[in-house]
Design a protein that fits this description.
Helix content: over 70%
Structural class: mainly alpha
Radius of gyration: 16 Å
Number of helices: 6
Oligomer: single chain
């Protein structure tokens, strides 16, 4: 059941986010931009909240010395949430909107790369496949329950408190 491995599910979403940012860059119609950006913003929130609810607690319990990486990731999620909110403060397709969009893209891609290099490999190396699949199943359920960010607040978390509460 490797296709339900949480690390592969997360990587798949990372790839989808990169493609979505590129697709949005190619759009010119304001209505299309607004629709697609709203979809991506919701997907980014579901992803972050899903990691906070499902993945990072498992990382903290199963991978030694993962507290620092987890705290950093939660800080990154907060920065991404701020960057996504900044986009909404501007008229769609305006220069300021594009500037905020590109800042959100940069913040997001930097975080994705850090997870891909620093967080996912030790989880994959140290956690057996059946446990990664179990976490992957919970991840999929979380996504099903929160499609289009339904029921998610988008609130930022205190990184230190998060690590303490989930260790």
């Amino acid at each position: 059941m490797a296709d339900l491995d949480i690390t592969l599910l997360i990587l798949s979403e990372h790839d989808a986010f990169r493609r979505a940012f590129t697709e949005i860059e190619a759009l010119t119609d304001a209505a299309d931009l607004e629709r697609r950006w709203t979809e991506l913003a919701d997907q980014l929130e579901v992803h972050a909240a899903g990691e906070e609810e499902v993945f990072y607690p498992a990382l903290l319990r199963k991978v030694d010395d993962s507290e620092e990486d987890t705290e950093h990731a939660i800080k990154d999620h907060n920065k991404i949430r701020d960057a996504v909110s900044a986009v909404a403060r501007h008229e769609v397709a305006s220069d300021a909107w594009w500037e905020a969009f590109r800042a959100a893209r940069e913040e997001t891609v930097e975080h994705l790369e850090e997870e891909e290099h620093d967080v996912l490999p030790p989880f994959k190396d140290e956690v057996p496949e059946d446990k990664r699949t179990e976490v992957g199943m919970r991840w999929l359920k979380f996504h099903e329950d929160h499609e289009a960010a339904k029921g998610l607040s988008g609130d930022k978390l205190d990184p230190k408190a998060y690590v303490e509460e989930n260790s």
